[in-house]
Amino acid sequence: MALTRTLLIVLAGGAGSRLETLTEHRAKPALRFGGSHRLIDFPLSNAANSGVRDVWVLEQFEPESITQHLAGGRPWDLDRSRGGLMLLGPHRGDEREGWHAGTADALWRKADRIREHDPEVVVVASADAVYRMDYADVVARHVAGDAEVTMVTTRHDGDCSRYGVVRVEEGRVTDYLLKPDDPPTRIVTTEVFAFTPAALLTTLETYADEADEDGLGDLGEQVLPAMVGRGAAAEYRHTAYWQDVGTVEAYWSAHMELLEQPPFDLDDPAWPVRTPAQRHVGARVHARGQVEDSLLSPGVVVEGTVRRSVLAPGVQVAPGAQVVDSVLLDDVRVGPGATVRRSVVDEGARVRGRAEVGGDGEVTLVGAGSVVHPRKRIPAGGRYPG
């Protein structure tokens, strides 16, 4: 049987303000995860492993941080002469020009391109969660389900008020609430949706005609409720691991889960999470260095103690320094005798000798390029600069 012509559209234009300074100078999908990977690697790897060969990435906020990482699509076998990877941002020159004012608005502004591409199914996915998913299974369920949209859902035991929450009966979505104050169920959308193109484009055009100068907003505001209201929404339940990392606490927690009980192997040959090759040599632990239950990326140098932590490429931990329960991003330096606990330290930051960062309690955040001076104390839950 011929494969269904599928177009994956990765929504990668949001500013990610809930991640605070971690997304001040980078798009959220460009944020590191697991040391060597970035969040956008997950939907792109899912596409590659699922046999989806046409992928569009919609950019807007800090697009260079994504474009540089994507390397023309080569790591995901998307650097092809026909189809493959396409990067799309805001444009000028026609009636759909302008900034993307939400996810639905972004799709409406690219509607003519979608029509010209003429896919049988459009899969729309965000790039701010950690998960593995066979998009081909989602597409097959959608094609068989006689629906305008198939929502990929999962049971979430945390704060459901941050997501789209649904009620489901016999595989059909009967109610959809966007970020409700009092969620009626614990079943949330994973922000992966399979659409019948004609239904999606018609619904977008309908609401575009009614929209004011603020645009269409997000899919969950009008488009998805309309499809649910027509009885045209089906469910695909994702029962494997899925973790949104849209806050500093969630980002840190997902890394600790990766260390304590890995939800899956990033290097699983059967379903690898692909990323561009690293420029660094292998990690190095000196004779006086100690590492326990941690993940070290290429280029890391450890002369002190590292426990239950994830270190991105180029991190250096000096003699006598301690890094515990923490996530350190690219090229961070931890000086002699310094301590970093239960913290996220962004790229290029310097924690000087005998400084103390974090502690028990809330996660501490040190911004990119910051310098924590010798003997300075940043308390648990602190923000530096704050």
UniProtKB/TrEMBL annotation:
Pfam families attached to this UniProt entry: Hexapep_GlmU (PF24894), NTP_transferase (PF00483)
Positions of transmembrane segments: none
A Gene Ontology molecular function term of the record: ATP binding
One BP term from GO: glycogen biosynthetic process
Residue ranges of every copy of the Glucose-1-phosphate adenylyltransferase/Bifunctional protein GlmU-like C-terminal hexapeptide domain listed in the record: 279-362
All residue ranges annotated as the Nucleotidyl transferase domain in the record: 9-260
PROSITE patterns: ADP_GLC_PYROPHOSPH_1
Lineage top rank: taxon: Bacteria
Keywords, comma-separated and alphabetical: ATP-binding, Carbohydrate metabolism, Glycogen biosynthesis, Glycogen metabolism, Nucleotide-binding, Nucleotidyltransferase, Transferase
Family, per entry: Belongs to the bacterial/plant glucose-1-phosphate adenylyltransferase family.
Name of the protein: Glucose-1-phosphate adenylyltransferase
